[in-house]
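Researcher: I'm preparing a figure for a lab meeting and need a structural model of a single chain. I don't have an experimental structure, so a prediction will have to do for now. The sequence is pasted below. Please return the structure as tokens so I can convert it later.
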Amino acid sequence: MSYRFETARDDYSDLASGAVLRSAPGFPAFPVRLASEVFQSALDLRGGTGPAVLWDPCCGSGYLLTVLGLLHRRRITALLASDIDDDALTLASANLGLLADGGLAARGAELADRARRFDKPGYADAAAAAERLHRRLAADGGPVPHAVRRADVLDPAALARAAEGFAPDIVVTDVPYGEQTEWTGEHAGQGLPGMLTALATVLRPAAVIAVIVRGRRVPPIDGVRPRRKSRVGTRAVALFAAGDLDGRPADLP
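Model: Understood. Here is the structure written out token by token.
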């Protein structure tokens, strides 16, 4: 895959997992450049010039959403994170909290204090990164409205409750792939098709769902063709219109 939108090879070191953004065992990060490319492709497919309400229903640590909020504040109205795992929601709340008023300033102060107490250059570097991210977020529009909610991505009723008060028009999610993450919950056997079906019941027909999986391609969904698909490294990406998943007209460019 050649990058169409994120064509510059920027320095993303300030966004490294485990520095300013928090991490934990079992919660993998995500390639920043690929995240930006997928989001911009979904935004382009959705069409229009307005900012997006972005949802990750398999949010894990919230890393992907937090990175996109920092990189694309001007293109985002609000962020919604949901997951079935309570530990994930705790970590996602901490990471997305960086996008709240004073979030990055508080994180920078915490890291600077650790640098003084433990005399570790890594903490000082992370504190400086937090300050740079704080300035960037302020310049791009300031705090990002967001919510972190518990929901089984395979349960339409739970997704509907999670989305209350929001009108997501773009979904970007890195689905469980069985190495560090896996499908869980009462409906785990439904996997990717079950997730897409459940999301389609909540989203407007023209909403775009960007699915990222490990492997050469996103597994086929019976009777539904993705609007776009691509592959980079060990990951495959497919973009669907929500209406295509349940037979509703999806008015996309």
